[in-house]
Specification:
The chain contains no helices and 6 strands. By secondary structure, the chain is an all-beta fold. It has one domain: predicted glycosyltransferase like domains (Thrombin, subunit H).
């Protein structure tokens, strides 16, 4: 059975190291951004991060090199975890998590 892509925004690859604050634990963690869209992003996080669907996080994307998302590089913003893939560990023991911005990022047109 084919899966349906319910995304509203086009994803673009983005390889970027980030730090985020996991608000429920009040701890900061390192992550790797894999892709981004106006609605959110995909992060690889260490498997030890106590993240669950619905958890709020706060992050900044310093060093953003994509012109259409350059406004994000200057901001700290809140997001919510919408997907945690605990079944497929990424190499080096990382989980893939989907994160939705608390409000849709409106930057340059796609």
């Amino acid at each position: 059975m084919a899966t349906v892509d319910r995304r509203q925004h086009v994803r673009q690859p983005l390889a970027l190291s980030v730090r985020f604050e996991h608000l429920p634990s009040r701890r900061e963690f390192k992550a790797r951004c894999v892709d981004i869209s106006r609605g959110g992003l995909l992060l690889y996080v260490p498997a030890t991060v106590p993240v669950q669907v619905g958890h709020p996080i706060r992050l900044a994307l310093k060093g953003m090199k994509k012109p259409e998302f350059e406004d994000l590089a200057e901001q700290t913003f809140e997001a919510h975890v919408v997907h945690v893939d605990r079944h497929t560990l990424i190499p080096m023991g990382h989980l893939a998590i989907g994160v939705r911005f608390a409000s849709t990022y409106v930057g340059r047109p796609e």
